[in-house]
Write a structure and sequence with these properties.
This protein has one domain. Helix content is 78%, strand content 0%. The chain is built from 6 helices and no strands.
């Protein structure tokens, strides 16, 4: 599941950079202001956000819903609420549509891994990769 997720991250980065070259330049801008601010922002988006989101959505919420619902309904409900949370994270309200495959992969990881650990590891890996893409594939303008 990690390989398709990373391939999707590269695809997403490529398409977003095509439409908006500064899409992932936030880390570079923060580093110019302060390396500490950049480190905090990276730590927050790579560690804190995935841990809190996964523990809530595919941990606590998944466990509660799964007692009464099947795996598909539970996956759809938790993924939908997770996607709604990400609407406010983007200036464009259509951007969370790009996160639908990520939500599905994280839900599949939670279901087949039978634990929040699998989705948590994938979410951290995905966010790490997204945060590192500007350094791996610098945008030339």
């Amino acid at each position: 599941m990690a390989l398709p997720l990373m391939a999707y991250a590269i695809l997403w980065d490529t398409l977003l950079d095509h439409f908006n070259p500064a899409a992932f330049g936030q880390y570079f801008e923060l580093f110019k202001i302060s390396p500490w601010l950049s480190a905090y922002s990276s730590f927050s988006s790579v560690i804190l956000s995935p841990v809190s989101e996964e523990l809530f959505f595919r941990g606590w919420m998944w466990t509660g819903l799964r007692k009464h619902w099947g795996p598909l309904a539970t996956a759809l409900a938790t993924a939908t609420v997770w996607l709604m949370l990400h609407v406010s994270s983007f200036s464009d309200f259509s951007a969370p549509i790009w996160l639908i495959p990520v939500a599905l992969i994280l839900s599949l990881a939670r279901h087949f891994g039978e634990s929040v650990r699998a989705s948590l590891a994938l979410h951290i890996l995905y966010n790490s990769f997204i945060a590192g893409l500007p350094w791996l594939f610098p945008v030339t303008t």
